[in-house]
Specification:
Layout: H1 4-18, E1 22-28, H2 39-42, E2 45-55, E3 58-63, E4 67-71, E5 77-82, E6 91-97, E7 101-106, E8 113-117, H3 140-147, H4 154-158, H5 169-179, H6 192-203
Antiparallel strand pairs: 1-2, 1-6, 2-3, 3-4, 4-8, 5-7, 6-7
Helix pairs in contact: 3-6, 5-6
């Protein structure tokens, strides 16, 4: 599964080709992903694209009618291609744009997701998420308070999206190493200073 920096790289890569363009129509060759591709997405026509955002490892495409929520899963990839590019076996979804390009979603394992919502702030897949690791809300005090009385080992606790989003296995291991914290200790054992070191390692 892509780490959070890779998802942000994908967002930045596709943004210039989508924002201020019009989504002409959608081609769905195989709707059977982790969850079936939303019917609302399949029927989209002539939709201005206002922004491409990210929340945790989800990409959010803001359209006039609502939001497409994309999760890449284990093997999903997004490509910007000429709109007449021939599809191959694992190319499941195309968003055909007014600039002659298309956003193509390729996913051999089909564990990604394409969901629809009118308002992403109340989406069930996003509502439970903790703060962004680089955001102002993620502080040593926040982490210290969340860790109190927790018996879960520090590493899996840190990887819980309800605590902080986007901290995957490799990212967690590296940050704990930099902060000098054993991943096998319970989260409740973290001191205020260790939380300071850990937040600093995550943010850098």
């Amino acid at each position: 599964m892509p780490e959070l920096p890779e998802v942000e790289t994908s967002r930045r890569g596709i943004e210039p080709y989508l924002v201020d363009q019009t989504l002409l129509y959608v081609v769905v060759r195989n709707p059977r992903l982790r969850w079936p591709v939303s019917e609302e997405i399949q029927s989209l026509r002539d939709q201005p694209v206002f922004s491409v955002q990210r929340r945790a490892k989800y990409l959010l495409l803001e359209l006039a009618a609502g939001w497409i929520i994309i999760h890449l899963g284990m093997s999903g990839r997004l490509h910007i291609l000429p709109k007449d590019t021939i599809a191959e076996k694992h190319d499941h979804i195309d968003l055909v744009m007014s600039n002659g390009k298309m956003l193509r979603y390729t996913d051999p394992r089909r564990l990604g997701a394409w969901l629809w919502t009118k308002d992403f702030t109340v989406s069930t897949v996003l509502a439970h998420l903790g703060p962004e690791p680089l955001g102002a809300e993620f502080t040593e005090q926040y982490l210290f308070e969340k860790s109190r009385h927790k018996r879960t080992l520090i590493k899996p606790w840190l990887m819980d999206n309800k605590i902080v989003v986007g901290i995957g296995n490799i990212y967690a291991s590296e940050c704990l190493f930099v902060a000098g914290i054993l991943p096998t200790e319970p989260a409740g054992s973290l001191t205020q200073n260790e939380c300071k070191l850990l937040v600093s390692a995550i943010k850098t």
